[in-house]
Amino acid sequence: MANHLELLNELQQLDKVPSLERLRAAQKRRTQQLKRWAVYEKEMQNKKRKADKRRTVNHAAATESKHHVSFAASVALLEASARNDPDEVRYLLKNNVSPDLCNEDGLTALHQCCIDNYEEMVKILLNRGASVNAQDNELWTPLHAAATCGHAGLVKVLIQHGANLLAVNSDGNMPYDLCEDDPTLDIIETAMANRGITQEMINETRASVERRMMGDIQELLTEGEDVNHQDSQGATLLHIAAANGYVQAAELLLEGGARMDLRDSDGWEPLHAAACWGQMHIAELLVSHGASLNAKTFLEETPIDLCEDEEFRAILLDLKHKHDSIMKSQLKHKTSLCRRTSSAGSRGKVVRRASLSDRHNLRVKEYETEAIVWRGGREEKEIDQENNHPSNTTVTVVSSHYFLDIHCKVLLWVQGHLPIYLFLLLNITSIRFLILLLQSQKWLVLHG
Predict the structure, then answer these.
(1) CATH number, domain containing residue 156
(2) Per residue in 47-82, pLDDT tens?
(3) Is a pLDDT exceeding 50 seen at residue 344?
(4) CA distances for 139 relative to 111, 151, 229, 279, 382, angstroms
(5) Is residue 163 part of a domain?
(6) By residue range, what is the domain housing residue 111?
(7) Are residues 294 and 179 in the same domain?
(8) Is there a single domain that holds both residue 112 and residue 178?
(9) What's the rounded Cα separation, in Å, for the pair 176 and 201?
């Protein structure tokens, strides 16, 4: 970069040169100035960026020194157990973290290790005081989990630490109910035999859950509480009884006014739950009380659609067929009764209107005219025969008049109680009968 003296010398020299050369020298000098300015600006920007970066790093370091990321103890323990990290688990337990901490589903670290078959971790947790009979939200114990997965080694460890062999989950199943692995099942059944567990004890334990539920229901009914209360998932007591096959509890609920059409958050009615979990007796009970086999969930599924057991499905289809037949028969009978009542009422009104006035008098006059006509043809003969047979003639005339009077009354009554075509037929028949009767009376008079 030129100093002040150099610039002065350059100006003195430029005074001696032509104007065009002075202009070119000025442009050259200006270009050099702009280049130097650009370099200077770039250097300043670099310095600023470095300073900003230095400040950011220092601020981050200061912030990190003040704030540390931390997790809940339950999360840390469950995460370490799921990673099968014995050292981390021991460290947490030594720092007074409870081994029975659970997540939102009620699963403890022991549950998780029994599912994943981490035998060493299970022993660490049990030795640190973890509850061997801890239950999750669906009442599953670690033994339920190990038995379901067929982890024979873990089942032995849990039984040695006093696991409850008769623990019942929310579905009413014990560990041996869920075990499909034969060696594991042998271990459980052997342990049950060693503890003296009998079938009666098993049945008693299963029934105890329903008895407790029935006690709670009876208490609700006594206090006048609503048995149709729905929980956060929309399930009612009848949903629970249906899913678990608690027939007596369901009967008690139905007697107490439990509704069968209430839906849970999935649109399931109690009958859907009974069909899904194969509770045949509950399904029959609900259908007999009017539950619909055509009811659909929010996914358009009927109870029959949710039934996986073919035998049970056949029973439900049979129940549906019988129910539909009964409903059709009742509807047909009801419609038939309505038609008969309507037609009979209409006919009765018509007959009643006519018979109250003109038709009665008209029919009486017709029958009287008919009687006179029949009498007119015989008056002369009866008068001629009166001297010869006065008693018979009197009897004949009296009987004829009496019979004609009764005949008119009978026809009046019949006309008001029979359809018109039957009345006409009967009228014609009665006229023929009168003719025969009068002819027979005439023969008796002549030959008597």
Answers:
(1) 1.25.40.20
(2) 777 777 666 666 655 555 445 556 666 688 889 998
(3) no
(4) 12, 19, 22, 20, 111
(5) yes
(6) 73-197
(7) no
(8) yes
(9) 14
